[in-house]
Amino acid sequence: MTRIIAGFAGSLALQVPRSGTRPTSDRVREAIFSALEARDAIEGAAVLDLYAGSGALGLEAASRGAADVVLVEKAKAAADICRKNADALGRAARGGARGASHTAAGAHRPPRVKVAAQSVAAYLEHAVGPFDLVFLDPPYDLDESALARDLALLAPLLSPDAVVVVERGSRTPEPVWPDGIAPERRRDYGETVLWWASADAQPARPSQPE
Fold it and tell me: Residue 92 and residue 152: Cα distance in Å, rounded?
């Protein structure tokens, strides 16, 4: 069973599509979010979860303090489950435990979660950023050129300090990084590989004195 690991919705059970998706394991999700919290990349962030499946990555970010989350999933059955999981998270925010994740007034402000039931490329072609944190967890058999296209469409939508996390199979090559996204590191977890990257906005060079 897939559950939210931590935050105001910690332990909330999430529905998972019966087929066609590959949920990120609890071990890998914990590694992702421990690293993100260490770099203070979640609180108040605008998050984009591409190839969302059940929405577990984006909703985990919402539970831990992200302000806005978009779950992009073109499969109708999976998109419907994303909506159900987002609704459950919203209920947890409005009526959950009165813990440290709540405001001083005692009520947690529900994060804004939107589900986009369309292909990743179609969404990115018309999206309005900026996004601070982006997850890409495409099917392992997704063509590398399709992933490269998605990353190229994503690059201009990133905020200056954005973090990008790409989950792939251990036998797939490193993604082709476009201008605007700089790779940082690779982490292996059995058959799963995480590629960490960040926005790489190149500042204009100062003009040379004549």
Answer: 36
CATH number of the domain at 2-18+29-199, please? 3.40.50.150
Give the three-state DSSP class for 72: strand
Please state, in angstroms and rounded to a whole number, the distance separating the CA atoms of residues 51 and 12: 21
* pTM higher than the cut 0.85: yes
The residue behind tokens 């529900």 is: 110
| Domain positions in the chain | 2-18+29-199
Give the separation between CA 192 and CA 159, rounded to whole angstroms.
27
The pLDDT tens digits for 139-176 are 988 999 999 999 999 999 999 999 999 999 999 999 99
The phi, psi pair for 93, rounded to 5°, reads -70, -40
Contact 33, 191 (CB under 8 A): no
